Amino acid sequence: MTTELFTPHNIGTCTIPNRLIVPAMVMNLCTEDGFITERYIKYMEEKAKGGWGLLITEDYGVNEHAKGYRCIPGLFKDEQIEGNRKLTETIHPYDSKISAQIYHAGRQSRHLVNGNVQPVAPSAIKDTFCLDMPKELTKEEIHQIVKDFGSTARRVKESGFDGLEIHAAHGYLICEFLSPFTNKRVDEYGGCFENRVRFLDEIYAEIRKNVGPDFPVQVRISANEYLLGGRTEADAYELARHLDEIGVDCIHVSNGMYASPIEKQIIAPMYTKHALNMDVAEQIKKLVSCPVIVTNRINNPNMADTLIKMGKADFVGMGRGSLADPYLPNKAKEGRMENIRYCIGCLQGCEAGLLNDDCATCLVNPRVGREYEKELTKTENPKKVMVIGGGPAGLMAAETAALQGHDVTVFEAKDTLGGAFKSAAYPLGKGELSTFVSSLRKSLDDLNVPVLLNSEVTEETIRDFHADAIIVATGSRPLHLTIEGIDNANVFTAEDVLLGKKDIGFGPVVVCGGGEVGAETAHYLTQTNQNITVVEMQNDILNDMMPLSRQCLLGYMKETGIKVITNAKVSRITENAVEYTDVNGETVSVPAETVISAFGYRAYNPLEETAKKYCSNVQTVGSAIKAGNALTAVREGYEAALKL
Ligand SMILES: Cc1cc2nc3c(=O)[nH]c(=O)nc-3n(C[C@H](O)[C@H](O)[C@H](O)COP(=O)(O)O)c2cc1C
Ligand code: SF4
After folding, report:
1. How far apart are CA 371 and CA 365, in angstroms?
2. Which residues of the chain form CATH 3.40.50.720?
3. Which of 198, 220, 464, 562 could form a disulfide with 169 if both were Cys (CB 3.0 to 4.6 A apart)?
4. What Å distances lie between residue 221 and 134, 174, 259, 410, CA to CA?
5. Ligand having the closest approach to the CA of 360
6. At the top level of CATH, which class does the domain 491-599 belong to?
7. What global pTM score does this model have?
8. Which of 30, 72, 263, 266 to mutate to test the pocket of ligand 1 (most atoms within 8 A of CB)?
9. What's phi and psi for 273, nearest 5 deg?
10. What atom of ligand 2 comes closest to residue 267's alpha carbon?
11. Is 226 marked active-site?
12. Average pLDDT over residues 83-105
């Protein structure tokens, strides 16, 4: 179906071989003083191997204190050129182009990641997330930063890049000048549009002076900031026309700044509709003569192809899509859609990694950022490997082992794959989670790995299999607390309810446990039941959920009228009520026709010791060790297979 994606198109003088672009993504894989590492080069090379038309580097600081994350590279001194030249020379033998994104983080930085220096901004207004009060830039400082952009651009060109992207989006310094939300200046850099755009105009002119008229220079903008008094689409159209007039080679349409609402965030969560910027990109495309890139929540090549066919944009950026599967373009080109590992929008590996001041990674692709450690080539010493458990950890272990040429068999006790991840796709907004297990299944099929369903492993199975290595990935089981009435006929596990094994009536429902599973199950049930209460022992719910997704779900729970009771320890379940002890030690009763047990999960590991009796190479991974974190489980499955 992909008819448009694999046609070349120009950005200025540079011919991009296809329409799939990796937008800039901070990975935190470089050095604190801004030097490229072998690790970063390998990470980028994997994408070039995977067939992306244009790779845009992460945002390079234009001076020593311009960065917003600890370990991003820069091109603010000549010594940094050598490493970048190595990067461009690594990419160019493939059919990919590479551009550098350059930026100044402005107020969206912290002294902690930035050499202990106070952030700067057009006006002294704190960002709601970074929380360091920025210093208002003087005009002299503004002029210096303009020069820094120019000299960085010169180094970009000298490093052999095919172009550069000025980062004027996402609430960083240039965006802060553009937006009346953050720019309250009354000099020639603030006030009307012409004044707010002056900083960008001067930067563009300085860059052109340094790189000449033919070097492709594109600009990334936030088309809407979704903030009271922030820039909106109408402002974006005006800006796009202006950029076209001053001669930029391409406009990259994104959205948001750190302060924007969660569902309109720069890195939109799974609850956000796909391709949220497509309509504004289309309007911009009608207004300008240069090509347009659209990005955010596009994770599927057929959707990308359709957007291009519809005239929404000339290129499609897929950031997380490229983390989840660096080989997405090649797979799409070969029509192997089922093999694509789609980004599921969970934010658990990528954004959460950065929020924790760590490297970005990916839940569905634990190899990302670790490509430098080991090539997945065929081993000369293939082993007979038994994988016990067909959840994400076991399947990832099996795939990674099989890719290295091991002789792998997966045993799964149930009649379906996915473990707890299967039911995790049922809550509202989470359907895409199924793609992960489904693509692993397809991959194992292609690798001729036997996957034995309904195969409960016993001591005899292990003894008779004669494995050289065993990976135990038996996952977790719901916690079964010793509470009076827990075995009553009206009590069901969240998993059974989500999987449709139990039908819930219209009467009052009490969900015991306000973690992610309990809260999501409650929200799921609001489709057919309007009387739902969540009872949680801690003083808040959803403490185990990724913070940004958590905020969304909290909002949905409120909207749908789910009642939440915290600091409440369930003490007894009857045929028509749940009793709990409140903070004062009082017993309180809530009516309940149905009770859903979502107290959490416990590790389930009945086979490790038995496995060790028959095999000297046994590794236990994922929730079989500690319940509850798919990111860790998948990573451990991958690592176990590397260690075989
Ligand atoms: C880990 C991570 C780091 C990012 N860093 C940058 C960055 O350095 N510069 C930038 O313009 N956008 C950055 N972004 C935003 C992406 O370029 C992209 O706009 C966003 O992820 C939404 O697109 P997607 O749904 O295709 O991922 C980052 C996104 C992620 C996931
Ligand atoms: S961690 Fe989740 S959101 Fe981030 S790239 Fe991977 S699948 Fe997508």
Report:
1. 11
2. 384-477+603-642
3. 220
4. 22, 9, 16, 47
5. 1
6. alpha beta
7. 0.96
8. 266
9. -65, 155
10. 3
11. no
12. 98
